[in-house]
Amino acid sequence: MAAPPKLCLPITIVLVVLLSYCNRPISGAGNPPPFACDVSKNPDLKSFTFCNPSLDIDTRVADLVNKLTLKEKIGWVVSGSEGVTRLGIPGYEWWSEALHGIGSNGPGVVFDQNNVPAATSFPQVILTAASFNVSLFHLIGKAVSTEARAMHNVGAAGLTFWSPNVNIFRDPRWGRGQETPGEDPLLSGQYAVAYVKALQQRDDGDQTRLKVAACCKHYTAYDLDHWKGFDRLTFDAQVTQQDLDDTYQPPFKSCVLDGNVASVMCSYNQVNGKPTCGNPELLNGVIRGKWKLNGYIVSDCDSVAVLFNNQHYKSSPEEAAAVAVNSGLDLDCGSFLIEHVEAAVNRGLVNESSINRAISNNFATMMRLGFFDGNPSNQLYGNLGHKDICTKENQELAREAARQGIVLLKNLGNSLPLSPTSIKSLAVIGPNADDKNFNMIGNYFGTPCEYTTPLKGLTSYVPTVYHSGCNRIFCDVAQVDEAKKIASTADAVVLVMGSNQSIEAEGLDREDITLPGQQQLLISEVAKVAKGPVILVIMSGGGMDVQFAKEDSKITAILWVGFPGEAGGAAIADVIFGSHNPSGRLPMTWYPQSYAEKVNMTDMNMRHNSKTGYPGRTYRFYTGPTIYQFGFGLSYSGFKHRLAEPLPTIMTVSLETGHACQSSDCKSVDAVEPMCKNLGFGVHLTVKNVGKLAGSHTVLVFSRPPRVHNAPRKQLVAFRKVHLRPKGEEVVRFEIDVCKDLSVVDELGNRKVALGKHVLHVGNLKHFFNVTI
Ligand SMILES: *[C@@H]1O[C@H](CO)[C@@H](O)[C@H](O)[C@H]1NC(C)=O
Ligand SMILES: *[C@@H]1O[C@H](CO)[C@@H](O)[C@H](O)[C@H]1NC(C)=O
Ligand SMILES: *[C@@H]1O[C@H](CO)[C@@H](O)[C@H](O)[C@H]1NC(C)=O
Ligand SMILES: *[C@@H]1O[C@H](CO)[C@@H](O)[C@H](O)[C@H]1NC(C)=O
Description:
alpha/beta; TIM Barrel; 27 strands; disordered N terminus; Fn3-like; alpha-L-arabinofuranosidase activity
């Protein structure tokens, strides 16, 4: 967006002042961002080691920490960090958000008509994840980090972004499931790594520096916000070691080990009786110790205050501050630490060396971001500004991302795509059709550059008539007669239904997973009178029980569109009218309403329990009925797989001499070196488009391990998306590493290779093979 013209009043007395003011790139909120080591203001800074960009970061950090008093240090353990004027260090606001575009949730980001009025709003993450396209994840992240740097340069955003959210979408009722890449650890991990790298990696390849800093949150086992009196601030998640290590932790592990993320945020909830932000095993032990985070650990906002005030975890504020810092927390989003940690030091509960560790991690991150390298306009990315925000390319990418994520769930008699030339009138019905509330943006949002509602998108293809059909999204009153009237005379009907942030959001979990209020009644009644195809479009974060629509032969097609972002309406129309062949796959299981009635949201167990009748969670463990399964999604084309090369039917693992399993019966062996070395095989599949339209197809490779260690019944081990012309085919190659990809986590959290019969399957293709000693 271009900067608006500046008004300068020629009042003589203040002319000089005003002129210099007007010569800045932009007035008011468009000021350059704060930065340290401004030698133009203070030439003495030149001689400071910490201001010298040619020295290594550790040396600079050590120098800086050495120069600070305890009070000054404590100013840098909170998100609104305090400036140290005598050393030319300004204050810094750490809290900016960029979940699917720059969001205004944190005080670090400011949208302002006179500076940056808007930024590109990509689809909510759950829909982007449904594209199963890792290069798309990366492209979105890159566009976001460019807009982020551009906004930073004009004083509208920070450098530290607390995104992505990589919690496993364990329960369909969770209001924040929409923010996540879904229920599968592999997909979540791959999404996280691609997004984090795209936010952080610089174009000059300098790995020691960051474009902007990402943050993987909320660590860990956090996926309940507010449900039937249970609240995230006080919820104590009871999690087994096995579930922790093979479901809840893997996306975070990928973030740190493969994504090299600059930050991890600990969550509000407790895990097994301990607040995550005050848990030394989880912070010092795992993130810092095992995974070796190169960056800072931040608390969720006010999480340290919460562990004292809401959870009463410690009996004094100083002890609460101490447990957080001593557990490994570096930065408090909030003010609890600035208020109480000095007293904790004075009482001997926290050593100054721990404060030094915390601020060293924080400063190191800021140094990697160039904050201590003087004027950012002289640095890489210094030229980014207003012209780089809401660009045509980014907005087109937002539309493309929505198209790629949209999932076709039903298409009776190929009723879709509709022909734009033969449809003379289209009835558009539903509370999300002419969405005036920015419902398509989902949560963690900024102001979108533009906004194309479904009605607008559809109207750009064919003439439409519209009725909302419901008094509001809750649909307490369905306007059935009015809707039927327009439906009965139209050539086709599109119903745009579902939820919005008043139904599923942060702090708001659902109790029911059916469509709200009388939406179902409206849909069924409209379908009865329609004379042509009826297309049901479901806008939601979580799955909906739409069994009625699946079964109703008058409802010819169903699309799930997530919360598709600023260009969502255009993307929906592109899919409906066949400008884009849908290829999205559900990144989460769609359960029936009975699931929500039977299963406590508070039950964190992933595995089913036959004694209690607990059905388990996600496609990996749940065996009950589903509405739609994880990975499901249709296309306007058909695709077939066959093995391009035969696969081994026996894998023999060679154990070291004297290994216990050579003399006794073992069900599994530890997935460790040297046995794991070169233990694997290639899976080469020929994928063919057997339909009439070009399209993309995601190959999902699942494994079914032997039933030992209560292993998942099925597990995604690899995926790849390919684009194929009609009749086109391509060989897709996967390298399967037995220890990494086919191992399971045992009851104690150790990775094991199960011995016995394994199955690999891709669509209808199944391959059995034995792992033996
Ligand atoms: C402070 O440091 C001393 C010496 O290393 C150590 O013995 C003590 O346990 C530390 N105290 C805390 C609260 O970490
Ligand atoms: C959801 O939609 C209703 C109208 O149907 C609107 O009143 C409400 O503000 C929306 N919720 C949010 C959070 O925008
Ligand atoms: C669900 O949780 C409630 C409250 O904690 C408990 O009373 C009830 O027995 C639980 N139900 C099941 C099926 O686990
Ligand atoms: C993945 O996304 C990129 C970026 O939009 C696109 O160019 C590519 O075709 C997509 N891949 C497939 C197989 O659809």
